[in-house]
Amino acid sequence: MVRPPPPYILYAALVKKESSWAHISALQSVILKYGCPFTYYVDSHSIFRFVQGRDSLWRNHYKQTDESTPQWKQVLEDCKVKVSYALSPQAKGKIERPYGWLQDRLVRSLVREEITDIKKAQPILNRELYRYNHRQIHSTTQEIPSLRFQRALKENQSLFRSFQISPPWISPKDIFCLRADRTIDAYRKISVNGLQIKINGAVPLEKVTLRIYPLNHLLSEVRFWSQKKLIDVQKFKNTDLFPMHF
In angstroms, rounded to a whole number, what is the distance separating the alpha carbons of residues 190 and 194? Predict the structure, then answer.
């Protein structure tokens, strides 16, 4: 587990829709700022874990639970961070309480200030997060969360470790990214969402891994890896790459 345990909240952001990339962005923000935790403790949401459903008359499942690794978990594997799953809502109770408190305050503040736009709501969330982490005395620990967190770091009582890029990766973009595998054809091309892409330095019939790093809402940088080597880097419109199955 991450020590010190909650109440310190490391990250909070409002998004219109939950997605793999939103959670990967959260990982990037936390790990680049604080380092790698020992363990992430999450529920069994499909973004975090592949869980096999029951077979039916219309569909048979060929992969068992955890035989497929979601995008979010692949990022943590590259960071050498373990994942632990809460198997019931009760198991997550201790973690959920601080977020419940923050959510209640946020909703009341937004109603009071008549804010309905998500961009205008984010500064309010930031304000409440600052209040919680730096001003509020926690009812259980009787300490301000940020002071408790800093003391744990100073006294070497934290399981965070420095983030380091392990070979063969050469950039955070190779780790905090979306991934897809393709096979290079005889013309040194691959197909993505119907788009034919010619890859510089590609070898026909070899497999290539696309490490896709969204730069903004318009463009993504695609880093092409083959045989543990970066062979090409290109940028594409997000509309050309997505939707892809992640």
Answer: 9
Closest CA to 245 of 212, 199, 220, 206: 212
Would the CA dihedral through 154, 159, 160, 161 be positive or negative?
positive
Which residue type is seen at 216? N
Tell me if the bond preceding 243 is cis, omega within 30° of 0: yes
What is the 8-class DSSP label of residue 91? Answer: G
For residue 22, the Cα-to-chain-centroid distance in whole angstroms is: 6
Q: Could you read off the pLDDT tens digit of each residue along the chain, which spans 246 residues?
A: 344 445 788 999 999 999 999 999 999 999 999 999 999 989 888 999 977 654 544 555 555 655 579 999 999 999 999 999 987 766 666 667 777 878 899 999 999 999 999 999 999 999 999 999 998 888 778 889 999 999 988 898 888 999 999 999 999 999 999 999 999 999 999 999 899 999 999 999 999 999 999 999 999 999 999 999 999 999 999 999 987 655
Domains of the chain: 20-154 (3.30.420), 172-241 (no CATH)
Contact 222, 212 (CB under 8 A): yes
Q: In the chain, how many H helices and how many E strands?
A: 6, 8
- The total of other beta-carbon atoms located within 10 Å of residue 42's CB is 19
Reference 212, options 160, 190, 137, 204; nearest CA is 190
Angle at the Cα of 96 from the Cα atoms of 91 and 98, rounded to 5 degrees: 140
In the DSSP assignment, the letter for residue 30 is H
Question: Of 78, 84, 8, 72, which is closest to residue 39 (Cα–Cα)?
Answer: 84
